[in-house]
Every structure is written in C-alpha cells, then in structure tokens.
C-alpha cells in the first residue's frame, strides 16, 4: 500500500540509495498537468499506468499495440468497462498478463509492487497528486529514479485535454498522432461552437443511471463541461460544488429539467438495472433499461423531459477519455436539433476509430428513449 510506517519508509529510502547506479540515459524535460518539470528518458520502454483508462488515449497514439511499453496498470478499466477490456484483450492477448494496481487516490496503489517492476515512468491522473505527495510515495519514486507524470482527462476537459494528450504523445514518441487527434478534437468542438444559439436548455446528467439510486450527477467539471460546450445549462452545477455528487429525487422533480441524459456502461453484473452502453451493448436493451428506470421512479411521468421524449443515454466512459468531443457533438444535437442538424456525430465516431483506433466502432454509445429514434452503432 502507499501508506508506509516511518521505519518502513526510511528502510525503503536506504534500500534505494544502496541500489547500483544505472548507466546514464539520454533524457528530456516535460511539463506535466501538475505544473511539474519532469525529466523522462528519450525513449520510454517501461511504463506503469496509474490510471487504467489511459488506454483510451494510448490506443489512439499507439494503435499497433497500446500495451507495448506497459509493465503494469490500474485495474478500474478491467472492472468497470468490461466490454472494452474484452475487445482489447482479444486484439492484444498479452495484456491479460500485466500486473494490476489499485487506486492511488484511495491509498490502494502498491509502491512495493511498482518498484519491483522497475519502471522508467509512472503516469497518474492529476487527482492522485495530493495523496501521493502527502503519503511520500513521490519521494520514494524520485529516490528510485522513476519519473512520475500527471495528466488530467477527468476534471477540466476543455482546458486539460489537449495538454494531457500532448504529454502522452511526447512520452510515447507519438507527437504527430497526438497533434492529429487534438486537431480533430478542436475542429469538432469549433463546429458546435459556431452553431450554438443563445438559448440553453436545462439539463440533468444522471451518471451511472440504474447502477445507483437516483440521482448521482456532476458539477461544473467533467461531463458538466461537456453539457456547457454543447450549449446546455447543467442544473446540478448549482448543487454540486465538486466534480461528483448526489441530488435528491425530490430536488430533481422540483427542478423539472428540459433534458435528461443518463450514462450507462457494462455494469449489468453489478446491477441489472444499469443501462448497457459500450462496445458490447445493443441499443434495444439500453432503451428497455432506460424506460424501466423512468417507469419505476415516482413523479417522473410528469417531468417535462419525459413528456417531451427528451430522455437520452450516453456511454459513461466519455467522461474520462479524449473522445469527449464526439459526446459534445451528440449532446449538442440533442439540445439544439435545428441548429446542429448538419452535424454527424455518428460519422465522427466512425472516423475516430478508422483514423486512430485499433478496434471497430461496434456497440451502442448513445441514443434516445423515443422509439422513433434509431440506435447508434448497433
């Protein structure tokens, strides 16, 4: 675990100081998302992913084999995005043998295991920075000559997404692909911004709908920023000061949002009420799950969003991937169907996979509860 007793910590430091000095490697300095100047090897070959969902980005930067330089990774993609993991494991079966780690921000990342893997670089999400520093893990990695780099795909996508992609592009010698992905993102977001009307529908985002009781949501950051970029007013922002929080069912009813967007994933083993979304999902099953949730919730039949058939589902993992710009286009199309009539997020999603990713765009990633609205990517 990260937390070490005082004696164990000093024992670690002494052991590290006694390690034989490795031959000097050519290095360069990059600036990570914590604002730190970090010296990394010119050619990185041994990396630990302290955030497993960084696979979404590595797949775009190294489509031939995103696991080529990975010696260990965090386990949350395996646990909470099982259909994506199954798809990538089928394409890259050696990934199944990689050691896995727990969440650094919750003190579940094993420093001992990481040191034993002899990595050159460990990449964490920015949310892990404060816990790792407080628990002296950063000092241990520094003493071992291991570079620690922080990126952020979680909190401020409009500000941190492009710099994070660039940092990973530099680390994995994939600068050209990183810039191409950023360019596609910027062009796609600009296509929304230039069409936005002044009116902003009031939107409720319910994250992991059905997996938990109503209603978990997001504040100003994360998917809240997706809604803002798409021309919506995220009603939860006035109630949730941080990234994530919970809204009472009574408050949701009183707020009476114009639009409800539920996120879903491959969680049916955890709760059969969850909305199936992702590479292994089918839209008809997702629609049935959405309708069941609406039907069972007291008072929802009287909500404007339900009466107007403005209930939608979105793949939950858009919240922590560089693919968010596709979600922005689709949400904008829901919120402003006339202004965004010529946008084609389906085609954009296909383009992203064809141009950048090693897997096909099969599955269901968004759709409307209204039967007249066809499913996507079935």
From TrEMBL:
PROSITE patterns: FE_B12_PBP (PS50983). Residues 46-343 form the Fe/B12 periplasmic-binding domain. It comes from the Bacteria. It holds the Pfam family Peripla_BP_2. Transmembrane segments: none annotated. InterPro entries: ABC_Transporter_SBP, ABC_transptr_periplasmic_BD. The lineage of its organism: Bacteria, Pseudomonadati, Pseudomonadota, Gammaproteobacteria, Oceanospirillales. This is ABC transporter substrate-binding protein.
């Amino acid at each position: 675990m990260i937390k070490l007793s005082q004696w164990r910590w000093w024992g670690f430091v002494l052991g590290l100081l006694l390690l034989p000095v490795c031959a000097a490697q050519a290095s360069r300095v990059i600036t990570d998302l914590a604002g730190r100047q970090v010296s990394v090897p010119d050619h990185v070959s041994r990396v630990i992913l302290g955030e497993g969902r960084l696979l979404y980005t590595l797949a775009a930067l190294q489509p031939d084999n995103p696991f080529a330089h990975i010696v260990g990774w965090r386990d949350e993609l395996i646990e909470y995005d099982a259909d994506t993991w199954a798809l990538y494991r089928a394409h890259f079966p050696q990934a199944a043998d990689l050691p896995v780690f727990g969440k650094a921000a919750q003190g579940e990342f094993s420093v001992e295991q990481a040191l034993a893997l002899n990595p050159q670089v460990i990449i964490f999400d920015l949310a892990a920075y404060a816990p790792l520093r407080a628990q002296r893990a950063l000092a241990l990695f520094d003493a071992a000559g291991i570079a620690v780099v922080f990126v952020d795909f979680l909190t401020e996508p409009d500000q941190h997404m492009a710099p994070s992609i660039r940092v990973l592009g530099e680390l994995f010698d994939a600068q050209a692909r990183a810039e191409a992905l950023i360019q596609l993102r910027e062009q796609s977001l600009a296509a929304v911004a230039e069409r936005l009307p002044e009116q902003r529908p009031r939107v409720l985002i319910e994250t992991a709908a059905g997996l938990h009781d109503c209603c978990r949501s997001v504040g100003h950051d994360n998917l809240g920023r997706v809604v803002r970029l798409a021309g919506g007013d995220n009603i939860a922002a006035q109630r949730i000061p941080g990234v994530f929080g919970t809204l009472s069912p009574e408050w949701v009813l009183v707020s009476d949002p114009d639009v409800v967007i539920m996120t879903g994933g491959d969680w049916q083993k955890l709760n059969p009420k969850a909305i199936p979304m992702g590479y292994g999902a089918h839209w008809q099953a997702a629609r049935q799950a959405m309708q069941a949730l609406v039907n069972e919730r007291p008072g929802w039949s009287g909500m404007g969003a339900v009466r107007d058939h403005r209930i939608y589902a979105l793949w939950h993992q858009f919240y922590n991937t560089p693919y968010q710009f596709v979600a922005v286009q689709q949400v904008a199309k829901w919120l402003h169907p006339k202004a965004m009539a010529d946008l084609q997020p389906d085609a954009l999603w296909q383009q992203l996979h064809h141009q950048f990713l090693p897997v096909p765009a099969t599955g269901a990633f968004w759709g409307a509860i209204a039967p007249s609205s066809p499913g996507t990517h079935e």
